[in-house]
Amino acid sequence: MTAAPEALTDARLDAADAADAGLPGLGAVAALRAFRSRDLSPVELLDAVLDRISRLDDGDQGVGAIVQVLDDAHDAARSAERRYAAGSDLGPLGSGSGALLGLPIATKEKHGLAGRPLSQGLMALRNEVATDDHPVVERIRAAGGIVHARTASPEFSCATVTHSRLWGVTRNPWNRELSPGGSSGGAGAALAAGYAPLATASDIAGSTRIPAAFCGVVGYKAPYGRIPGLPPLSADWYRGDGPMARSVADTALLANVLSGIHPADHGTVPGSAPIPVEFPDAAAWAKGKRIALAVRLGDYPVDPDVERAVRETAAALAAAGATVEEVELPWTSAGIRDVTMAHFGSILGPAMSRLTAGMTELTDYTERFIADAAAAAERMELVEMLAGEARMQADLAAAMRGFDVLLTPVNAVAGLQADGSYLDGIDAVGADGERVHLEHYWQGHMTVPFNVCNRCPVLSVPAGVAGNGLPVGVQIVGHPYAEESVFRAGAAVEALRPWPLLAPA
Q1: 26-258 matches 282-331+385-496 in fold
Q2: Residue 66 CA to chain centroid, in angstroms?
Q3: Computed from CA positions of residues 285, 298, 427, 459, in that sequence, does the dihedral angle turn out positive or negative?
Q4: How large is the C-alpha radius of gyration of the chain?
Q5: Hey, where are the domains in the chain?
Q6: In what order do the strands lie in the sheet with 241-245?
Q7: pTM assigned to the model
Q8: In sequence order, what are the residues at sequence separation of 6 or more whose Cβ sits closer than 8 angstroms to the Cβ of residue 480?
Q9: Burial of 91 by CB count in 10 Å (0-12 exposed, 13-18 middle, 19+ buried)?
Q10: What integer pLDDT is reported at residue 60 of this predicted model?
Q11: What is the DSSP string of 73-123?
Q12: How many CB atoms lie within 10 A of CB 87?
């Protein structure tokens, strides 16, 4: 039933890439079309990605992205195969109960599956079992998606690297010495390695966008409330669960399935319309658009490789007809750190402290995060923190006035060591090329301001490659709830500066 791999892989693959990528490099939208035409079976695609996992994920230098392979995935794939064979009326592509029919999807372990382990990377919780499906898992299954694998994260998703005592070290498929980032590092690494066409992630300070950037894939932080989470922490306005994929269209496909009001999450809000999953003549979007460029977001010390990639992306949009102007924001990475750590000290930190009370096997970064968050909350009262957030929101609105979207780097640094904890801060490169030591590793990432400004949609797309072999990501920031704008811009970048679908095996 399988057509030749080069007939199914995304058109952006050249012939050499296609031979290696084959079915594991196939995109979600392309797979759905192949299922409908009967050129491909869901069972065949599942077998291909499971084989990729078995060959690449384990061992000392394996990727280490997958913490569980689901034993019932083949039953679900065969059921989907029968539904396609019956010629069922599935409706428009990407909609209804067949929106994801037959697609293998890797979910972050924190997105619980009823009856399956739910440890969040904590050794002491390794025998805990979820009683219900997380809302994003519920929606994936209702749309016919197959959860075939679950991905690693740091303990409690509280670090920008992905390693834990329970699961070991997750490595970046592009450079095994380096990290895929965190906290959705397992998701980003799984996509880059060809373990799934779609994955779920979560983002409270960049946990979707950071690994998307380091792994050369697409990650979406939706406006707060568009995608449901689990109470009570879903009430934290920095939070958001969401999709990752290897293309803009595939990311939109999963975002549409996950979005919308859910009875379990009182904070969910409706959207105006589904995000497009097709972008014909995508580069034409740029003509006449006004794009703001903020390379440093104030004073972030940005690695030269990162700056080069982001500026080249902006130049490509300008060459396609956009007006690109640099804007200044009156922010400092230290000031952002103080406000956001005080926020964590009021909500996430106490929640982690309660959950981990009495545990003796915590990883060092978990203990440090709880302590740092508590200390920050002591220094800054809640009302002062809220005032600081309001200033940042007003600053961003002023900087984006008159522009369609804002471009800025995802990460200020070009990479992190796979097993690093960065308890003593992080070294970066300043504007003058000199080394700068940042007190807290969160200052090496330029994502959390948009969790503060969390009604803004943000799409992370690849922008180039750094000298260490890791991809570089650019954030595309939209006005509040203007979701389609960031996907249109992302599709334009994808058309103008196409990226590899998989890391070299």
Answers
A1: yes
A2: 16
A3: negative
A4: 21
A5: 26-258, 282-331+385-496
A6: 66-69, 146-151, 104-108, 198-202, 241-245, 218-221, 458-465, 471-477, 405-409, 290-293, 323-326
A7: 0.95
A8: 223, 455, 456
A9: exposed
A10: 83
A11: HHHHHHHHHHHHHTT----STT-GGGTTTT-EEEEETTS--TTSB--TT-G
A12: 9
Which phi and psi (to 5°) does residue 149 adopt? -155, 155
Q: What is the mean pLDDT of residues 436-459?
A: 95
At residue 9, the pLDDT reads 38
The β-bridge relationship of strands 458-465 and 471-477 is antiparallel
Is-contact 34 8, C-beta < 8 A?
yes
Chain-centroid distance, C-alpha 455: 17
Dist. CA 479–CA 149, nearest whole Å: 34
Q: What percent of the chain has pLDDT over 70?
A: 96
Q: Which of 294, 214, 151, 288 is nearest to 468 (CA)?
A: 214
> Residue type at 85?
A
Q: Which residues contact 102 (CB under 8 A, 6 or more apart)?
A: 31, 32, 35, 42, 45, 77, 80, 81, 83, 84, 144, 146
The dihedrals phi and psi of 416, each to the nearest 5 degrees, come to -130, 145
Instruction: Name beta bridge partners: 474.
Output: 409, 461
Q: Which of 187-196, 202-211, 265-274, 396-405 has the lowest mean pLDDT?
A: 265-274
pLDDT of res. 87: 84
| Tokens standing for residue 302 | 């940005």
60-85: per-residue pLDDT in tens? Answer: 889 999 999 999 999 999 999 999 99
303-321 tens-digit pLDDT: 999 999 999 999 999 999 9
In whole angstroms, what is the distance from residue 221 CA to residue 227 CA? 9
Residue in 485, 438, 109, 499 with CA at minimum distance from that of residue 272 = 485
Predicted pLDDT at 429: 86
Q: Provide mean pLDDT across the span 348-356.
A: 95
Q: Which CATH architecture has domain 282-331+385-496?
A: Alpha-Beta Complex (3.90)
Q: What is the pLDDT of residue 496?
A: 98
The CATH code of domain 26-258 reads 3.90.1300.10
Cα angle for residues 381, 241, 216 (degrees, 5° grid): 110
